[in-house]
Design brief:
By secondary structure, the chain is α+β, with helices and mostly antiparallel strands. The protein has 7 helices and 8 strands. It has a 4-stranded antiparallel β-sheet. A 4-stranded antiparallel β-sheet has the order 5-6-8-7. The longest helix has 18 residues.
Length: about 230
């Protein structure tokens, strides 16, 4: 008989900061699959192995993190954590996830207490921070900007997410735009600062690279303000 690997199959049954983060990350970079033998799997994928290690520890998983083949040799190496569990699969279905969820992902009902963790998880999966000096055509001087951005193929998901962000973070505006074959949601500097302070207020799990990048963006901003 094949060895049964350890996992906390009740993980998605009770809200916690770690559960909310992983649910957010799964919304961005996770999937549900059923193989030809009707085995049920949940899967997390990422170019940053460190965050998958953190997710694995939170799930108390004995499953191996494997590398994924690169279609293009110039692409970054990608990693995958695949877990066979019908119970966890069904728990995620209850949150509205489906097989091939790319265009059907919907925003789960998240307790306010854990929304920052969920948002940080989604940001680590399908978000980015852009910062630096931008030159506008109608202005002579360059201006320093921080842009908090999220991407999704489902436009409604981003609209619903932006409403929650506005309610809990008190953002003043947003920019929803077409992004290739998907949609993007971005915020201005002041709103981006609010959101970053919100999601990184005593964080549990986070992707180290994006945390450092966000930290640098904030430090640069306040150096300029204090001049």
């Amino acid at each position: 008989m094949p060895k049964t690997l350890g996992i906390n199959e009740a993980f998605f049954k009770k809200w916690s900061a770690e559960m909310a983060y992983i649910l957010g990350f799964f919304s961005a970079d996770g999937c549900l699959t059923i193989n030809p033998r009707s085995s049920h799997y949940i899967e997390f994928s990422c170019n940053d192995k460190d965050v998958l290690e953190k997710i694995k520890r939170a799930l108390k998983s004995d499953h191996k993190i494997g590398g994924r083949k690169r279609v293009n040799p110039n692409w970054k190496k990608s990693y995958r954590l695949q877990i066979g569990s019908k119970k966890m699969f069904n728990d995620l279905v209850k949150f509205g996830f489906t097989v091939n969820k790319t265009e059907t992902v919907s925003l789960p009902k998240i307790p306010k207490k854990y929304f920052a963790d969920y948002l940080r998880g989604y940001f680590d999966g399908d978000g980015c921070i852009n910062y630096g000096y931008y030159h506008y055509k109608d202005r002579r001087a360059k201006k320093y900007h921080i842009l908090f951005r999220l991407v999704c193929k489902n436009k409604k998901y981003l609209i619903d997410l932006s409403k929650q962000i506005k309610n809990l973070v008190d953002t003043k505006g947003k920019n929803l735009f077409a992004h290739g074959n998907a949609f993007g949601l971005s915020y201005s500097t002041k709103d981006s600062l609010k959101i970053l302070n919100f999601i990184y207020n005593k964080p549990t799990i986070y992707l180290t690279r994006k945390f450092k990048n966000s930290n640098q963006a904030i430090k640069n901003y306040y150096k300029l303000v204090d001049r």
